[in-house]
Amino acid sequence: MTRISWIPAGIALIAGLVAGIFIGMQTNSRVSPDLVDLSVLPEDLREQHRHDAFLELEAKNYAMAKEMMAQQEAERANRPLKTLPDGIKSVPLGRMYEPEPEVHWPENIGGELAQALDDGKDGWVILSYWASWCAPCVHELPDMGKAAPLYAAKGVTLIAVNTDPMQKDTPESVQKLFAERGVENLVPYIADRAGVDALLNASGQSVMSMNLPTSIIYAPGGVPYATFSGADTKLETAWATDGTLQFLDQLVAQN
User: Fold this and answer.
1) 183, 141 Cβ separation under 8 angstroms
2) Which of 12, 29, 84, 193 is the most exposed place for a label (fewest CB within 10 A)?
3) Which pTM was predicted?
């Protein structure tokens, strides 16, 4: 399985970029995996890729990202995998990991997101972090939207929240992206700067070491159950597949 990860936002911040580089693999195996798929990025980012200076700077950051991601993959290889429920060998959403000790229920969150978290806390909750410059994140949003009502029927709350640390994503731009990508059934929550810090802290990350997409599964009561970082970008659907729904059925049956 091709694992998805996005470059740490710290690279983009250090370089003064608004966006990162698409690390996801192309679906055509004959094409170099280093090529960039621009089709899922916002229009302004696609336009920037027409300029040589931007591409040169992006190439340098891509090299930095690949080195850092290699280090992170080595660290991740040492992380314990989650023991899945009986009868479940794998989950289409990607590898499930035991949550790190610092992972916890989000605290000091305000607004409608806080209410959504409170409303779901007595049941299972999947909290997913994304940003518009994260191509794998954008790729899976429509699938997440299709999955949300299926999860709700099982007593599982799916919440996708924009955690762009550079605060470039706005309600207007996110609504436009949702419309363009056909994202339904998801509330377009956008964390403010303090909220981004609080959410990253809850996931055991910081602005300088964050990876997107990041998702946390919480058991009833806000107890961290597992974390994962995304499915195979070659898959049209992962969130709404029978395999994922069976996994959730098993989780809900445990409580």
Assistant:
1) yes
2) 29
3) 0.77
pLDDT tens string 81-124 = 999 999 899 999 999 999 999 999 999 999 999 999 999 999 99
